[in-house]
Amino acid sequence: MTTVQELYELWAGESELQAELKKSLAPRGRDWLFETFGALGPEKGQLVVDAGARDGRHAIRLVREHGLRAVALDPVAKHVELARLAVAEAGLKERIEVVEAPIEDMPLADASADWIWCRDVLVHVDAPRAFAECARVLRPGGKMLAYVSLATPRLEPLEAKELTEAVAAVRESMDGSGLEAAAVAAGLALVSVDQLGSEWRERMIEDGEWDAGADALEVARVRRREAELVERHGATSVAAAAGGRLWGLYQLLGKLCPTVYVWERRA
What is the pLDDT, as a whole number, of residue 6? Predict the structure, then answer.
């Protein structure tokens, strides 16, 4: 165990370790997910389902880069409205259909999709139901690429409880082993799994796209004024504000581990 004297001597001046920690580890950025999809070999004219499309920008990019057709699904009416506007502005209305629907109940025919793109969705849903539906709509040989933030042992129980309630997450869907078992049970075979850990958040800081300090400061302000803010804005709004900021901070600190899966629908 480190003594107090040793500790403060270590903190007192510059060291080789401190110099090492200032060096970038060349973290992968968010474009890496699109590169991973491209490496799977999508072919022109194939159908990709963007399950949880939000404003449609991912579906638009996939269609443009690979000559695909797309169905952009989202259960949130506001997202559907934004996606339809974005698709229209992109001039892709004939190649991208925007539909209000959840991943657990997709209005698509059996074996009709070549690809499923699923980013930041699985933590919010009943995973067994979602995987069963994905397996149903994928053709044999079709693949699903999913980005999901999994809880790690560093996420304490109280943190997990508060976070999942704040961001409408399903605790069981943040467990890697349970998620993988649910996919297998639905008939999806694991092709690959890649743990990104803190990489995206590191890259966002290095590129000036995210201010982790600002998010931490706002969480601190919530904690200091929580009762007042809840009275003025409501408990749900305050919890969501804190939870949204903690999500990124927990990814950076290793309490959540962003993970990318590729599954294949076997015959």
Answer: 87
User: pLDDT (tens digit, 9 = 90+) per residue, 219-229?
Assistant: 999 999 999 99
**Distance (Å, whole) CA 253 – CA 95:** 40
Percentage of the chain with pLDDT > 70?
100
- List % helix, strand, coil for the chain (3-state, nearest 5): 50, 20, 30
- 14 token code pair: 């510059």
**Dihedral (C-alpha) 248, 32, 53, 129: value to the nearest 10 degrees?**
-80
Residue 138 CB contacts under 8 Å (≥ 6 apart), including other chains:
111, 113, 114, 116, 144, 188, 265
Domains in the chain, start-ordered, CATH in brackets?
27-153+168-198+255-265 (3.40.50.150)
Which of 39, 36, 33, 40 is CA-nearest to residue 57? 33
- Give the C-alpha separation, 27 to 129, whole Å: 34
Query: 138-151 and 256-265: which strand pairing?
Result: antiparallel
Nearest one of 144, 151, 246, 263 to 197, comparing CA atoms: 151
Model confidence over 142-195: pLDDT tens digits?
999 999 999 999 999 999 999 999 999 999 999 999 999 999 999 999 999 999
Contact between residue 148 and residue 263 where contact means Cβ atoms under 8 Å apart? no
Model's pTM, two decimal places?
0.95
Q: Find the length of the chain.
A: 267
Start-to-end C-alpha separation, the chain:
56
Within 10 angstroms of residue 44's Cβ, the number of other Cβ atoms is 8
| Residue 77 neighbours by CB under 8 Å, 6+ apart | 100
Backbone angles phi, psi at 266, to 5 degrees: -85, 155
Strand ranges (DSSP E) for the chain?
47-51, 69-74, 96-100, 113-119, 138-151, 188-195, 256-265
